[in-house]
Amino acid sequence: MKKLLLASLITAASLISASALATPTSGMERMTVTYRNSLDYALYQYTIELMSHYRAEIQTSIQRQAKNSSQAMADAFFTQTPEAQVALVDFPVKGSARTE
Question: What is the 3 state secondary structure string of 29-98?
Fold first, then answer.
């Protein structure tokens, strides 16, 4: 009888402590899962792939425009006369350096 009483007390104590630990806290993170049918999921996948392709095209276009713009500036610079190039870059002209 003592063993039965002791076992029931231990079981009751363990249930009480387990229920005390199971109280929800306000900082708990929740995750919501929405199930969609196959057509909605396929449309979602198609949209994601289309947007990623579009972003890649935009990035390539920006890089191509920057390269072409830099090349055009370089071509314009090197087609000028040497005196104009020196004036743009602000290199000191030979023989005009100060010697004090």
Answer: CCCCCCCCCHHHHHHHHHHHHHHHHHHHHHHHHHHHHHHHHHHHHHHHHHCCCHHHHHHHHCCCCCCCCC
